[in-house]
Automatic annotation (TrEMBL):
PANTHER family: CELL SURFACE PROTEIN, LARGE CYSTEINE-RICH PERIPLASMIC PROTEIN OMCB. Pfam families: DUF11. This is Large cysteine-rich periplasmic protein OmcB. The gene is omcB_4. It comes from Gimesia panareensis. Residues 1-31 form the signal peptide. Residues 122-136 have a biased composition (Polar residues). Keywords: Signal.
Amino acid sequence: MPGIENRPILKLTSGMLLLLTLSLTACTAFAPSQRSSWKLTDPPSLAPQNQPLNSPKPGSPNPQSRETQRVGPQESIPQKETEPAQPDKELFAVPESIDRNQPPQPRDLPEDIPSRPRLETPQPQTRGKPETTPQRPSGPMMTPPAQAGPLEMTVDVIPKRQLGSGATFYLIIKNTSNQSVRNVLLECEFDSALLFPGRREKKIGQRLGTLQPGESKEINLTLYSDTLGNHCCRFRAMAEGEELVWKSVCVEYVKKQLELSVIGPSARTIGSRAEYIIKLSNVNDVDLKNVKVTVSYDASLIPREASIGSERETGQLKWMLDTIRVGEGVQLQVEFDCEVAAEYACMRVNVTSPELPDEQASACLKVTPAQGVLDVQVRDTKDPIARGEETTYEVSIENRGLQPARGIQLRAKIPRMFRVVSVEAHQGNQKLNLRPEVNQNTLVVSPVQELPADAFLRYTIQVKALSSGDGEFDVTITSNDSDKLETRVSEITTVNR
């Protein structure tokens, strides 16, 4: 019967479909997953893929194969305005005595304050050996005041740092009285194992001027050390030569386990982009587990692109890297739009793991309006790349003036790890016939005779990586206009081994 004859065929078809389903499931289960790290001696040949900053939910597929994806302005999150940290312009070396007419007067710590750390400064020849009589440096008297003074001091610092890393002390001096305090002077004396970049002194100070009732001032001080152990700083605030308040804070320096660096520009114009690359390397002898990277940024920086796996929160981007094995490294990439002028537009990186102390790094850039009538911007089309690969620098020039710009010339300093492959120039859709010349890593392109108002000029410079490292592509644009302004822009590119 026909029905009986069709049953074996139906059974055979069902069996084949079941076998095909099991095969697909097995292939999916045993397919290798994408790693977020690689051996430092064998990095991947392709740049890490990026994702839009409205990150997908965990477990959702990511079919895009592009390195980056644009995020529209509507995706930006309103940011709270924060005051950038100001440089210490009034920093100066402090003599041992405030009275310049008297010799330095050492002042020892009292014996009846056991809760304070003993501020010992051993001599270099006796470092590491027990001393029978501890030496005490001159500095703050640190004697308990008879009554609460008009000033209040708080000092915060990460208590444990890696060798070679900076320990940043965050100080707040506040006038808690109902009267003004004039001629306030802040002094810091630190152990010999701590270093202040660019200075030999171990005692520095900063004038704070007059503090009105209720007014407070914030000061940041970053010191470095390449010596293991606990190292202390002693802070005191004075007014009219009288010590009013003091604090003593110590930091423990431990063996370096993680290399952390941030690479990016130092200046941008309004409307341009700033690209940062964050590098992490495990230099320890054990794996680093549960590594978490947090990037926070000022409100003047608008994030547009980031390496895949990021989670976005207000003012922050976060990555969970799980385990970074011994000898492995990870690179993360973030791009920001620079939409408003800022003297200091900063991004900060914080790395945490149960196996190491919190590690921090930061980078700041200055965002200014474009100078003159020419708006110049530069970007690399692929970054980072591997040795032997190519990338292209795109230099765009817009004439924002009301008159044509004449005699426009490009001069670029090519990083030594690159060799120039080709140079082209286009004005609109028209290719220009220009003569490029490369001499000792300097590229000079013959001038463009005229660029009309509101017109664009675009250079594409293709280079090939011959060696590894971080190189800065530095461009200078000049013209024959009456103001003779020069415009300089740069872009940093990373080449992996």
